UniProtKB/TrEMBL annotation:
<dbReference type="InterPro" id="IPR015813">
    <property type="entry name" value="Pyrv/PenolPyrv_kinase-like_dom"/>
</dbReference>
<feature type="domain" description="HpcH/HpaI aldolase/citrate lyase">
    <location>
        <begin position="11"/>
        <end position="214"/>
    </location>
</feature>
<dbReference type="Pfam" id="PF03328">
    <property type="entry name" value="HpcH_HpaI"/>
</dbReference>
<dbReference type="GO" id="GO:0006107">
    <property type="term" value="P:oxaloacetate metabolic process"/>
</dbReference>
<keyword id="KW-0456">Lyase</keyword>
<dbReference type="GO" id="GO:0008816">
    <property type="term" value="F:citryl-CoA lyase activity"/>
</dbReference>
<feature type="binding site">
    <location>
        <position position="120"/>
    </location>
    <ligand>
        <name>substrate</name>
    </ligand>
</feature>
<dbReference type="InterPro" id="IPR005000">
    <property type="entry name" value="Aldolase/citrate-lyase_domain"/>
</dbReference>
<feature type="binding site">
    <location>
        <position position="120"/>
    </location>
    <ligand>
        <name>Mg(2+)</name>
    </ligand>
</feature>
<dbReference type="GO" id="GO:0000287">
    <property type="term" value="F:magnesium ion binding"/>
</dbReference>
<feature type="binding site">
    <location>
        <position position="71"/>
    </location>
    <ligand>
        <name>substrate</name>
    </ligand>
</feature>
<dbReference type="InterPro" id="IPR011206">
    <property type="entry name" value="Citrate_lyase_beta/mcl1/mcl2"/>
</dbReference>
<keyword id="KW-0479">Metal-binding</keyword>
<protein>
    <submittedName>
        <fullName>Citrate lyase subunit beta/citryl-CoA lyase</fullName>
        <ecNumber>4.1.3.34</ecNumber>
    </submittedName>
</protein>
<feature type="binding site">
    <location>
        <position position="146"/>
    </location>
    <ligand>
        <name>Mg(2+)</name>
    </ligand>
</feature>
<keyword id="KW-0460">Magnesium</keyword>
<dbReference type="InterPro" id="IPR040442">
    <property type="entry name" value="Pyrv_kinase-like_dom_sf"/>
</dbReference>
Length: 289
């Protein structure tokens, strides 16, 4: 599923603070599937104006290999209008709006660019289906830190207190053909924990994961991607499906199992993910393996 015009699968989406020019420049060479230049939580109030200037310069300079979104400050803040105007005029591929709680906000911001709605409050979770139904919304991103705080949950390595909310966001997004992206993992010193959470997110139905550190990109791409063996299996299944259909058979089997149209569609998705992985390897500059 593609949530941005011309974009492939979004396995890893990297947040980059807008007030860190060196980090923004480094992000150009990384293997994330998309980048979010952040003007909101990652930027202190006294640095907001400079961050906006930095992001504008980075967008106008071009040269990005992947889609670049801008997370603007939320509705009702003193920075919201300038953030949105800058992002729209500078060529951002889409806007990430924090703390979306109803479809009204999404409808008001249908500005001709894809809108990515952050679901990070109880009201946002309950209204996720209506938010996802808005035509201008490309996807839903979980903001687990704020959501956990609002729900008064306790930290848990398996995110058990948040499972209902996480699944509700996936269900809402998938029901309306939108892209669900999993929340960030805070402890960059715990790669094993990050991999575990990626695998859980994939099992729950998320399309990819938002990340906060370059070291998390490869693990997210792997967890939400496919292996060569899986790609070979998908090709073989599609061959069996196409040959069976061409021969007029009403029942097609592969590996002893009945194959239906949904299995062929799933195999096509697997191959799309595989192609994205191959393109990432081809495009990645030397010295960034």
């Amino acid at each position: 599923m593609m949530g941005l015009p011309g974009a492939g699968p979004l396995r890893s989406v990297l947040y980059v603070p807008g007030d860190k020019p060196r980090a923004i420049e480094k992000a150009r060479a990384l293997a994330a599937d998309a980048v979010i230049l952040d003007l909101e939580d990652a930027v202190a109030p006294e640095h907001k104006a400079q961050a906006r200037t930095n992001v504008r310069a980075a967008l106008l300079a071009g040269g990005w290999r992947v889609p670049v979104l801008v997370r603007v400050n939320g509705l009702g803040t003193v920075w919201e209008h300038e953030d949105r105007e800058m992002a729209l005029l500078s060529g951002a591929c889409g806007l990430v709006l924090p703390k979306v709680e109803d479809d009204r906000a999404a409808l008001e911001l249908s500005l001709g660019r894809p809108l990515w709605a952050m679901i990070e409050t109880p009201r946002g979770v309950l209204n996720a289906p209506a938010i996802a139904a808005v035509p201008g919304v490309a996807g839903l991103l979980v903001g687990a830190n704020d959501l956990a705080r609002a729900l008064r949950t306790r930290p848990h390595p398996a995110r058990i207190p948040l499972l209902h909310a996480l699944s509700a966001v996936v269900l809402a997004a998938r029901a309306h053909g939108k892209v669900p992206l999993d929340a960030v993992f805070n402890d960059v010193r715990d790669p094993a924990g990050f991999v575990q959470e990626c695998e859980q997110g994939r099992a729950l139905g998320f399309a990819g994961k938002t990340v906060i550190h370059p070291d998390q990109i490869e693990a997210a791409n792997t967890a939400f991607g496919v292996t060569e063996e899986q790609a070979q299996q998908a090709r073989a299944l599609l061959t069996a499906w196409e040959e069976g259909r061409a021969a007029g058979r009403s029942v097609v089997t592969f590996g002893g199992s009945l194959v239906e149209g949904m299995h062929a569609d799933e195999a096509q998705e697997v191959l799309a993910l595989w192609a994205a992985r191959q393109q990432t390897v081809i495009d990645r500059p030397e010295g960034n393996d």
